[in-house]
Amino acid sequence: MPPLQPWMKLVLRIAGVFNLVAGASMCTLYHEGYKMLGVPKPELILPVQVMGILVASFGVGYLLVAANPIENRNVLLLGFLSKAISSVVALWYVAIGQLPLGFAAVVFFSDVIYLPPFFVIMRRLYRLAAAS
Asked: Domain limits at 27?
């Protein structure tokens, strides 16, 4: 039995490419991102760019999991935890009015939507690793 079903590889590849593109845009197109979300641009952009580097790094990680699932399963765990925790924090800021409501859609399509398939994939990979 292969470690990943075809849909699992597809999800990981989509997540990987999405994160690479999102991370790169956070590093280079931050003006447009702030404008699109209706958030005032801070004076210091470095934290956004560092976050973009982290997002892009997770993109590389998801592609590594797709290529070598068992060996890289811990990278998926880190990605899952990152997406879960950042989703809760970001949605909290939306709920208390610190971020606009439209940001909830960004969080949904960039993080929340991946949580169920990542969980299923992780469970499979950890079970396969324990069985071998």
From this structure: 6-131
